[in-house]
Amino acid sequence: MNRLIAAIIGMAGLAVIPLAADAQRAPPPPLPEIPATPVMSGATYPDCRYDYRRQDEPFDKADATNRCIERLDAYHAEVLAPFRLRMIEHQEQIAALYESQVMNDFDYTQEQADGFFAAITQEHEDSNPDGRHMATAREIEVRYQEDRAFLQERFCRYSGTCANYQRTTETAERDRADGTEQRARREEEEDGKNACDTERAGGGILGGILGGVLGDAAGIGAVGGFIAGQFAGVLVAEIACQLEPEEQERMAEATEEVTQQEEVGATASWASPTRSDVSGSSTVTALTSQPNGASCMDVTDVVIVSGEETRVSKRMCRGPGESRYTLAA
Q1: Which of 57, 168, 259, 286 sits between 20 and 30 A of 234, alpha carbons compared?
Q2: What sign has the CA pseudo-torsion 238, 244, 245, 247?
Q3: Taking the chain, what is the end-to-end CA distance rounded to the nearest angstrom?
Q4: Cβ distance 254 to 243 under 8 Å?
Q5: Is residue 254 part of a domain?
Q6: Residue 13 lies in a domain
Q7: Domain count for the chain
Q8: Could you give phi then psi for residue 41, rounded to 5 degrees?
Q9: Percentage of residues in the chain having pLDDT higher than 90
Q10: Are residues 54 and 156 in the same domain?
Q11: Which of these three, 165, 182, 212, is where a domain ends?
Q12: Which of 120, 147, 165 is the last residue of a domain?
């Protein structure tokens, strides 16, 4: 019946208007795809940190550490840095995608727009420097910084070209791990050989290398010049040559402490500020007075290095009217 009415209206030249029930809204278009998350290059991180240990000579070791540093820097420049840039570009791309294609396109339903915004927001957060997409890069960055600092120190250790390089407890542990601790000790002994092998007599050091001008056993005129303040002049060569400068100062301070007590049995202990396996003590074992007013005491020094104990006795004397004991010849 409706079709007949429509036909009649059409023949009369009137427009046919579809009924409201027949009207249908076009389906919304599909949302754009979020670009794939960048992934790091498949290049393998250079595992060359300990390659230098295959070498025997110090300069060969230094050369090997330098080659590894170059490989690490190349990996950082060619893999890590570009990956961070690609991740930044990825964040910019997904933000622009929402703004240009979804945010103001009202063909999408509100539910679609909200869902797409939530998805790209999460992707953006995951791509931040502290996000989960950057977890591997962060781990490798930490490893790179640690490896490079380690190798730089080892390069300085074996090349001998770095100004102000000093051994520490940590670098001594590295020497032991490298199997070069004995070499390190020999090098240190060689550096101090002129001082340690200078004329010795009765356990004392003659001249002005480790001590000042030493008096006789009675302490008359036993006023010596001091190196590094008051510390030198109370060290005996047999022990001093085993110690680093900071340790020599600690030992000298212990001697100063017990001489000030002027009491048999007085003891002062010390520990190395740089090496965990080095310590010692000074103990007064005898005390005598001279008719002229001078005083002398016997002091026993003990030094323990890597479990090996060295024990040396020395005589400290103070002339009439003097306030400080000095090492007697």
Answers
A1: 168
A2: negative
A3: 138
A4: no
A5: yes
A6: no
A7: 2
A8: -60, 150
A9: 33
A10: yes
A11: 165
A12: 165
Domain that holds residue 214: 196-327
Is 204 found in the same domain as 136? no
- Exposure of 202 in the CB half-sphere (CA atoms within 13 A): 9
223 is written with which tokens? 């006023």
- Looking at the fold, whether 161 and 275 belong to one and the same domain comes out as no
Residues 267, 320 within the same domain: yes
Q: How many CA atoms lie within 13 A of 62 on its CB side?
A: 11
User: pLDDT averaged over the chain?
Assistant: 77
Q: Long-range contacts made by residues 299-307, C-beta under 8 angstroms, separation at least 24? A: 299/255, 299/258, 299/259, 301/236, 301/239, 301/251, 301/255, 303/239, 303/242, 303/243, 303/251, 303/278, 303/279, 304/277, 304/278, 304/279, 304/280, 305/242, 305/275, 305/277, 305/278, 306/277, 306/278, 307/277
Residues 160 and 257 in one domain: no
Report the C-alpha gap between 263 and 279 in whole angstroms. 23
What are the structure tokens assigned to 47, written together? 């595992």
Whether residue 52 is contained in a domain is answered as yes
Helix (H, G, I), strand (E, B) or coil at 288: strand
Residue ranges of E strands in the chain: 200-201, 204-205, 267-271, 278-289, 295-305, 308-318, 326-327
Question: Where do the H-state alpha helices sit in 46-168?
Answer: 58-75, 81-97, 110-126, 135-159
What are the tokens at 153?
Answer: 């120190």
Both 134 and 244 in one domain: the answer is no
Q: How far is CA 271 from CA 18, 169, 241, 293, in A?
A: 101, 13, 16, 35
Q: Smallest Cα–Cα separation from 169: which of 246, 240, 236, 231?
A: 246
Q: Per-residue pLDDT tens for 155-174?
A: 999 988 888 888 888 998 99
If we measure between CA atoms, which residue out of 143, 144, 166, 182 comes closest to residue 305? 182
Is position 247 within any domain?
Answer: yes
| Helices H / strands E in the chain, number of each | 10, 7
